[in-house]
Structures are given as structure tokens and as C-alpha cells.
Amino acid sequence: MAIGSEDLSLAAAAALDASDPLADLVDRFVVDDPDLIYLDGNSLGRLPRATVERLSAVVQQDWGAGLIRSWDHWIDLPAEVGDRLGAALLGAGPGQTLVADSVTVNLYKLAMAALDLATAADPARRVIVTDDDNFPTDRYVLAAVAARHGGEVRLVPSDPVHGPDPDRLAAALGPDVALVSLSHVAYRSAALVDMAEVTEAVHRVGALTLWDLSHAAGSVVVDLDGTGADLAVGCTYKYLNAGPGAPAYLYVRRSLADRLRSPIPGWFAAADQFAMGPTFSPIAGVGRFAAGTPSILGVTAVDEGVRLLAEAGIGRVRAKGVALTTLLLDLADARLGPLGFEAASPRDPDRRGAHVSLAHPEAREISAALIEVADVVADFRTPDRLRLGPAPLSTRFVDVVHAVDRIAELVGSGRHLTSAAPPVDPPET
Amino acid sequence: MAIGSEDLSLAAAAALDASDPLADLVDRFVVDDPDLIYLDGNSLGRLPRATVERLSAVVQQDWGAGLIRSWDHWIDLPAEVGDRLGAALLGAGPGQTLVADSVTVNLYKLAMAALDLATAADPARRVIVTDDDNFPTDRYVLAAVAARHGGEVRLVPSDPVHGPDPDRLAAALGPDVALVSLSHVAYRSAALVDMAEVTEAVHRVGALTLWDLSHAAGSVVVDLDGTGADLAVGCTYKYLNAGPGAPAYLYVRRSLADRLRSPIPGWFAAADQFAMGPTFSPIAGVGRFAAGTPSILGVTAVDEGVRLLAEAGIGRVRAKGVALTTLLLDLADARLGPLGFEAASPRDPDRRGAHVSLAHPEAREISAALIEVADVVADFRTPDRLRLGPAPLSTRFVDVVHAVDRIAELVGSGRHLTSAAPPVDPPET
User: What is the rounded distance in angstroms from the CA atom of residue B121 to the CA atom of residue A52?
Assistant: First the structure.
């Protein structure tokens, strides 16, 4: 049998796997169907084996046996796990990261606090800058927060592949801007915004930054402290592998925290929680952005996900993410280009997160048929994108080759147009 | 050996257990230490056995094996479980109850929406009425919401045993009132507010009601639809046995929902979630108060807790709650009164929820020593209350007798003052 380009790719990928320092970690995840190729780790990360054990222990020992007494250690968990998350993945020193609520709620709390601070100093500083391709929740919440302050959102045009235009962003900044909120990695294209450069420009006009790290944390090297970032939020169900709807996190720069007030003053943020006094006085630091009782199961799952990433080391995770997405783009060019696919993510790995989008006019049907008949899980994203997320911790290089093979076979055969599968819209970002 | 009053009480309690139609349900909960008497079911409910199985299945099968594909059934869970919860426990018809976020965040969303609606119609209608003994988060959040609208909170004096004074409440109502927010059952005293009476009085002045049902749902018969209630929130980790920090719920009267807008317009509340369009348009009904990705593990645990209560029937749960607390108060009068305890909950069972507070100057030390040396778990609440919650589903009548015995023995011996146990403040409401 002649050795074709497919076999050459597979041999090369197997060599990459053999020299991958993170290869062993793939086995730390539950794999139910070995034939399934899961390229949706950027949407809902796989289940770590350790999480199964830990959740069982929290349910049966902490809750079932310990009952209310377990609050003696549960109460510090959101801040402790926040610190571990910040140190391992965000470049954040202790006391600045908290696991709490959802991305949506955290984004609201931080944006409201930022606008309250800005408008108190200067009522005319009430514009929020974001980009027109930012994730929907971000755009909706920021618009509501700006409107609540009599301001508005200024939308910077975003290139569908390369993200927010730096020149247009610079032009949008002025003395009326209170807050600039961007996704560090774009949810559709994976375009990576230069955090240091943007932060510097934003600070120059006296505004604050609020980063959405949902697609960045656990996939690229984030350096909040080092870049002087002010505020950040992010989810934990993607690269952090904390499970469906696990709690999100928020970051508030230490030197800024005590000048901010949460719009939602819940008792978990009170300086003396059990005094239950007549008026609310917030505790010092990021903890003031807590609200109600934290989800202990959720925070526990976040902890396990963070521990796994910390063990891997974000530098190695990033390097593998670059290698996986580079391989994917190269294979897509060679084998999927002739079938009508076009790369819709930055080719420069320094400007790209850990997922890849491919444009194809039948992307919706392809995404559905891949799940139904090819055992490949990927996302459809409007208007015509197939989004592939080979999460570095749980994906092998050979998986990428097999995935491209299956996509080529499916689309080459035209079966994606005859498959009975209904289009699937998985509700993770 | 002579038969003392203690033995007589035990015999009577055993007879009550023998004729208790819910007696078998006690075995549906995980009991790790059979000697422990757990009177904190109103703070963190016990772990149902079924929840252990169900959570394990959701983690391993739905998440581990199904991965992102499980969103096809996860996505409807918050509304489905909300409907079951509403039907079983709140007197709420379908489409009005949603499981989401925490009590604090839900209270904020609904109060903001109510004030937005009121002030849009009449800028002078911006007062929120609550009582000065309402739960801290409620008071803090309501004050923040009123201030955000240029209004204020009007505090009705509350009797520490009997709850908000009805005459003072009536006097606080006027054309400047936008919202009246009360706890249906008071967190400390268990005083039960007459929902129908209050709602009628509030509607007479053109205001809306927002009920906190945290200590009421699953313990007393709540009839939101029947009383014409407008809005409600509540937690699920108490009588609903959904675990530490499980998601809360919110209720919005059907005829009111589409006139309200959530202040936090998250993508899970968008009319067409995956269109991801430029502007936010909320879906019809209570779903518009969703925000970010719901906690699937949490909603699942709520579902199991609700199913157990639905099987029991809230009428029988309430009857058992009345019987348990009546027995507890009677025994406390007889055996703890001589030791300095005084009942601090309403004696009329129709005006009382399913827990009992006893005042004692050394309540803090007693609560700590009970856990440490007597294997009885109860709460301390400021300033001098021992709070005992014999949750109807998981408590036997004989447990109440044994608990009073142990309290009497502890305090009679003075050991609560010499025990080394540090005072414990369990952070559940």
C-alpha cells in the first residue's frame, strides 16, 4: 500500500504526541467513547477524573456527613480557589480573584462599579467602549450599564477574523470614556487582543479596562498584574474543565478594589457577615464583589480544573495550543480548502487563542452532521463558521488529523446535506 | 425505675412517629452519624439519597459522556424544575418560576425591575418598604436598589418574636411606595406574615410585592397565584435539600412579566439566544430574568429536593412542621424554661414557620457546645437566639425529645460555659 499524505500527517502527528510533555494528561480525563473526537473543549471542557472523586467526596462527606459544620472550610473556598486560579492562569497575585456567580453577573457588577466610580468623579465620563463582535452577553450587559448611567456604548468595528481594529479602538478613546471592555480572545475567531497595549492606551485617557477572559484563561498566557489590567471576568466551564454552568470568576486590581462598590451588596460581601447589622459595609478587597451563598459543588469543580492546569503549567499549555491550532490550520488549508473551507482565525499564532474557526457556507449543516454521522464534536457559530477547539490538556495531535480526515470525508461525500441531523446550537460560549 | 416525664415525652413522641404519614421519608436521607440530632435543616438541609445517585449520573453520563450534546436537555432544566417547584411548593402555575443565580442576585434583579417600572410611570414612586428585622441581604440590596432610583427604604418596625407590625406596615404604605418586600417566614423568629392580607393592602396603593420565601418554601403552604403575589425569590439549600449554595429561584406573576426588564440582560434571556444579534430583546415570561449559564449540577439537585417534597405533599409537610414545632415549644417551656430559656417564636402555629427560636443570654456558647459535646446541631443567631429547625422531612418526633434532653443536660451542667468549642456562625440563612 502506498503511503499517502494522510498517513504522512498521521505519522508526523504521532511524533508530536510522542514528544508532547503534556501527553499523559489526556488520560486524566473521563473518555466514554474512544472513537469520539471532541473539539469543543473551548465550549464545555471534558470531565477530569479527579473531579468525579472530589465531587463525590464533597457531596457525601462534606454535605452528607459534615452538614452545616462544613461551612468552617467552605466559607473560604471562593477566595482560596480564586487565588489559585489567579496565580496559575491569570498572572494575578493573591487577594484579587474570586470565584462567584456567572460571567454575566460578574461583568454587570464590575461594569456598574466602574461606571459609578467614573461618573462620581466626572458625570460626563460615561461611555463604555467595546467591539461590535464581542460576545452577546458582554454587549448586552455593557449597553444596559451605560444606559443606566445616562451614557452609551461606543462600538469599535471588529474584523471577523482579526478582531477589534487597533486604530479604530485608539480613535474611540477620549475623556468621555469610563470603561473599555474587550474579550482577550474572541469567542468566534480566537483573535487575541494585545492586553498590555490596550491597557496602556486606555489608562492614557483615564479610563479602566474590563477583560472577558472566558476563551483566554487556561489557553493563553494572561498577565493581569503585569499589564496593569484593572478588572476581569471569565468562565470556568471551557478550558478550566469545571463543568456545565460552574461558577465564574472575577478579578479586581488590588489598588482599585477599595474604591469600588458592588451594585449588589449581598451578605457574603459584608465586613462582619454575622453581625447582620442595619447597614451594609463591604469588606476590603475583591471579596466585596461576592453576593449570595456560593455554589460549593461548583467552586470545588473549579478547584480541580485549576489544579490540573497548574500541574501542566500554562506555558506548556500555551505551547501545545499553538502547535495544535497550527497543525489544524495547515491540514485545513491542504485538505479542506479544496472543499470550500477558508481559515477564519488569525494565522499568526501570537495573535490567536487555542481554537480555530473555518468559514464554509454549509457550516451549520456540517457541524450537525459531524456529530450525527462522523463522531466529531465541533460548534457552529453564525453566520458560517465551524469552530474547532482542540483543548490542549485533553486533545492529542493525532485527534486533529483524524478530525480533518472525517470532515474531508463528510463534506467530500456531500453527506452533510442529506444527513437527517437537526442543526445543533450548544449554549456555551 | 420510675417513669419520669422524660420517658413519658419519649413514649408520646414515639407514638407520633408511629402515626406520621411522612415517617418513611426520614430514611430517604443520608445519615452518617445516627447519634447526631440535626436541627439545622432550615439552614442547610440534609442530603437526599436520590441526589447522590442523580448528581453522579449528571457528572459521569451527562457531562463525562454526553459532553456538549447534553445541552439539548440541560437548556430547559431551569424552567422545568422551576415549574415543578412552583407547582409543588409555591402555588404557582407554570411559566412563572425559574431556577437561577442566588437569592441575593434574584432579589436585586426583581427589585430593580420593579423600581424601573414604577419610576417610569411616576418618578415620585420610589420608596421600598421592608421591615427592620428582615434578613440582612434583603435589607442591603433593597437599600441599594432604592438609592439607585433616588428613593429610599422605609423600615417598618418588626417585633423580634411576631414579625412586622401590621398596623405600622399599613401606615407605611402610600402613593410613593413602589415595592413592599418582606420575608414570608422570618429567618430568626419564624414569624409568618399573612401574604394575602399584605398583598391586598399593597395593591390598594398601587405598589408591588416581592416575597422572600427562603424559610417558607417547603415548610409552609405558599399560594403565590392565589394571593395575587407579584414577585418572589427563595433559596433551595434549606427545606428543599439542594445542597450548599445550590441555585435559588424567582417567581414573576404571568400578567406582570412582560412589563418588566431585568437589569442584567444576559444571553440566556435573549429571545433568540443563538442569533447573537446586535441588540438584546428579552424572551416572553419569567425566562427574561435568566442571566448567564445555569449551574446544571445545582439545578439537578434542586430537582431531586423538589421531587421529594412533592411526593410528601406540602399539606402533610406543613402539618408535621406544626406538630414538631409545637412539641418543641411545649418541651422547651417545661424543661428549658427553668434553665433561663424563653420562647422567641410565635406560639400560634398559624403564625409560625417550621423552626423555633429560643432566647437565652448564653445562646452563642450553648450553640457551640451543643455541636462540640452533645451532638446536636442548631444555630446561634444574634443577639441571644438558639434557632432550632426540625425539618419535617428528615426529623423524627423522638429527635425533638432527645434534643431537648441534651440541651437541658448541657445547660443544667453548665458545661456550655467551660467547653472549649469556639462559637460557630454557619453561613446559611
Answer: 52
